[in-house]
Amino acid sequence: MTETRRLSAADGSGVSRSGATRYSLDAAIGTIWPSTDKLISEEVLAGIAREAAASDERGTLSTATLGRLRDAGYFGLPVPVGFGGGGANLLECAAVQRRLGKADPALAIAVNMHLFSIGLAVAQWRRQVNSCGLLLEAIATQKRIVASAFAEPHLGGSLLRSTAKAKRVPGGYRVTGVKSPCSLAAHCDLVCFQMQLDPVEPQGLLVAVIPSEATGVRVRHTWDALGMRASGSETLLLEDCFVPEELVFHRCEPGNDDDEVFATSLIWFCVTSTATYLGVASAAVEAACGGLRSATLAHLGAARAELPSVQGQLGELLAPTLALEAGCAKVADRLDSGQHDPCSLVPLAVAIKHVAVNTCIRAVEESAELVGGSSYARTGTFARLWRDVQAARFHPPIRLAARQLIGKWTLGLPFFFELDERPSS
Fold first, then answer.
1. Prior bond to 397 cis, omega within 30?
2. How many whole angstroms separate alpha carbon 345 and alpha carbon 334?
């Protein structure tokens, strides 16, 4: 096959039979996502990528990698410029997450929890100027890391309940509970979490931020998982921990909340987590292209990349991924425009997160299959990507709840942001 007719998978460019470049996959993706070089440099990402495999093998989050992100101003990305932050909107943050997910999936998944909490705080500040402004300024200027402690045992992925029980006391609340897994638990400066008043009250689910060194906050090192090994996702214990009233920045009804703050934060999480897994899929496709180009089939006298059947299968796995990229970016753009009620965008955000599970996992699995048996090595790139992408199954909204929500929305039935097994009437 002549050089002028070869499809270059390295840069995604198609070269016509006349030798003129006509199409570029990278150019197409560039029309979906904005440039984020001003927010995080390629040099920083390259350094992170170099450490990813070693961090995974150790099963620990690299402090050097976190240091790179701190120095780059990552943890203040969505904070308004007036508070010393990067002023990045949702679309830009998602584009950064896509690049970070490609460089180091476990790290990207972990720090995405920070972005979720900051997105929630920014939404609350925009809705009602209050103490969140001081919090946002401190996070941006002091480069603080926030751990999102929303996952709990026995919640089944519910987003708006908590088994962490809080009792009113003078000046605030006393809370006891278990948060697990909690990414960045041992590396954070602040903890953002939900707690539920006991006894239950109508606005009894509270969201607060407290210092990680507050009395009653303790980290138990329990993380030894299949994937996300270098995410620092430990168990965080709240033991009779005092939460001052002024550090509670959102209140809602347990199990059901349709206000703009919750809707905005849910959209932020769905979009940025989907973008992160798209980055993982992109890394797998890139690795596959390199493997296909270098793997020669002796009996055919050709590289795998030159075989039409392989090219077709590569296109088959990539097409849904490209469609998801376009959908993810569009939802982010709609929220950023400020022209739409965030609550109206929630079904779209839940849908892209739901679709991302199968789409991104399939892209990684089939990329490995195309390369062949060499991708099955325990310490290879594909092994790490395959393990990390599986986490998409467990991040809320989980598929059991997401598909139920979408169905109820379609039928116009009452819904809750959690799995509900009661018959609808």
1. yes
2. 8
The 3-state DSSP class for residue 29 equals helix
Residue 13 is inside which H or E element, if any?
strand 13-15
Query: Taking the alpha carbons of 274, 279, 284, 286 in that order, is the dihedral positive or negative?
Result: positive
The superfamily CATH assigns to domain 260-411 is: Butyryl-CoA Dehydrogenase, subunit A, domain 3 (1.20.140.10)
Give ∠ CA 104-105-108 in degrees, rounded to 5.
85
CATH superfamily of this structure's domain 148-252: Butyryl-CoA Dehydrogenase, subunit A, domain 2 (2.40.110.10)
Give residue-wise pLDDT tens across range 231-280: 999 999 999 999 999 999 888 888 766 778 888 989 999 999 999 999 99
135-156 residue pLDDT tens: 899 999 999 999 999 999 988 7
Contact 401, 357 (CB under 8 A): no
- Residues 248 and 107 sit within 8 Å (Cβ to Cβ): no
**Which residues are CB-contacts of 149 (< 8 A; sequence separation ≥ 6)?**
179, 182, 185, 191, 192, 193, 236
φ, ψ of residue 5 to 5 degrees: the values are: -110, 0
DSSP helix/strand/coil, 34: coil
Q: Residue 194: in which H helix or E strand, if any?
A: strand 190-197
Residues shown for the chain: 425
Residue 309's CB: how many other CB atoms inside 10 A?
Answer: 9
Domain boundaries for CATH 1.20.140.10 within the chain = 260-411
pTM here is 0.91
Q: Which two tokens stand for residue 34?
A: 């904005």
Q: Do 18 and 4 contact (CB within 8 A), yes or no?
A: yes
Q: Where in the chain is the domain with CATH 1.10.540.10?
A: 42-145
Cα 387 to Cα 413: distance, rounded to the nearest angstrom? 37
